[in-house]
Each structure stands twice: as structure tokens, then as C-alpha cells.
Amino acid sequence: MCSALGISRQAYHAWKSRRPSERHLRHERLRLHIRQMHEASNGSYGSPRLTHALRREGEVISRKTVERIMQVAGIRANVKRRFRPTTDSSKTLVPAANLLQRSFDVHRPDKVWVSDFTELPCRNGKAYAVAIMDLCSRRILGMVVSHSMQTRTLLKAFDDACRVRRRLPPEPIIFHSDRGSQYNADLFRTELAKRNFIQSMSNKGNCYDNATMESFWARMKTELGRPLLFDDLRDARSTVYRWTHLFYNRQRIHSSINNMTPVQFEQQLFSQI
């Protein structure tokens, strides 16, 4: 073989016994760690978030290096799909005015909460989830998965969100949603007023007015894997709760909040108050 390659036997054995370079060993270590981080994020982290996560651990690395390692290892982030709105009660009920007006850049927690429902396909039918998010930190304060989209499902999520906060600010909080009948129900509107919230609703048929929540649902469904199909309500509930409260709120970094997790970002903001 050596003669066929045109090299001496000594040169071949020297090459074979040569130790891997420091650069090669580092890239191999990074490849394994990047794969672990990618899998821990349910395939959601691309090179920007992986780069920030590595730097937070003290790794000196560029985004180009991360991209190159991912490409060689065949690691790719999931791409989220567009999501369609669920309900619209504007034909039968008078909706609240759109106070948010797509002003998604909020600098203080508990200034604006946003909410939305989504469908979750199951083998034996459908389940439904409703989430309530603090627009400043992107933290999910309330999440309920149920067999129905009734107002009581929304009320449970709202009560959970208020319990997370324990003490709400004296200033009114804007509560923004689409025009779904659950949000327009007298029971829910009464509860909002009782807790010093001001209601706001998207314009008719315009999902961009609640883009942050639409994006959250699309991201969740992408990161949980495709095709998304739960065994039953119990499976949907445990999977969504685990992803939301253990991963999204506490582990998933967001570029819109200085590459922190929602809980970390809130802790930083509350410490400054």
C-alpha cells in the first residue's frame, strides 16, 4: 500500500501514530457539546443561540466556527411554521379597542400581558391550550391544556398567572388578545376589571396584532417535533407543561431579551426595581 501511495513505510507509521492536534480535539469536544445542547433544546437552537450559550459557559468561540461544526456534524435547527388564528367573536360581540397597536417592545414586567388559544392534535381528537405571556420578559405566566376552549379554561390560566405574580402593580395592566369569544365573555371581562386590567384586542382578522403569541405557538409546535400528534389529553398536557415551565421559561435563551431566559431576564429587571 505504501508503494502504491508513493510514501515510505516509516512515513506511514509516523502518520498513523501521530496524535490528534489540539484544534482537532477542541472541535471534537465542541461537536459533542453542541449536539447535546441542540438536543436539549428540542432541536430549536441554531448557530446564534448555540454561540451565545457556549459563550455564557466561558467558551471563546465565533458564530462561524459554530456554523462550521454544525454543518460538518449535520446539525440543523428546526424551522417554525406559520400559525393561523382560532376564533373570532367580533360578529356577535363588541370587541375592546386595540390599545397595544403592535408596540411589542415593553421595558417593564407586568405592563402588558398577551394571550391566545391553540389547537393540539391528538389521536382521539383535539386538545386546546391557552397561554398568558408577560410581553416584557416573554415568560409564560399561565398555561392550561384542556379538552375545550371554554371561558373557564381561560379563567384558570388567568388565575394561575396572577398566582405566579402574587402581588400585581397598582397601575393597570393591559391584557391583549384576539377577538375570541372567551376573551369577550362577561365572566372574563369582570375578572379583568376586578384585578385592575385593561382589555385590548387585535383588529379583525389580523394575526400580526398578536404576533408574539402567534410566534410562541409556532415555535412550541416546531420544537416539540413534527408531525405533532399527542396520544391523548394527558400526553398533550404533560408534554406542553414540561416544555413550557421547565424548558421555555427556564432554559431557552431569547435574542429579544439579551440572550437570557425569561426567568433570568425577570430576575435581573426585578432586582433593579
Automatic annotation (TrEMBL):
In this chain the Integrase catalytic domain maps to 105-270
Q: Which GO terms describe its molecular function?
A: nucleic acid binding
What Pfam families does UniProt report for this protein, alphabetically?
A: HTH_21, rve, rve_2
Q: What is this protein called?
A: Integrase catalytic domain-containing protein
Q: Native species of this protein?
A: Candidatus Kapaibacterium thiocyanatum
Top-level lineage group: Bacteria
Q: Name one GO biological process term.
A: DNA integration
Which InterPro entries does this chain map to? HTH-like_dom (IPR025948), Integrase_cat-core (IPR001584), RNaseH-like_sf (IPR012337), RNaseH_sf (IPR036397), Transpos_IS3 (IPR048020), Transposase_IS3/IS150/IS904 (IPR050900)
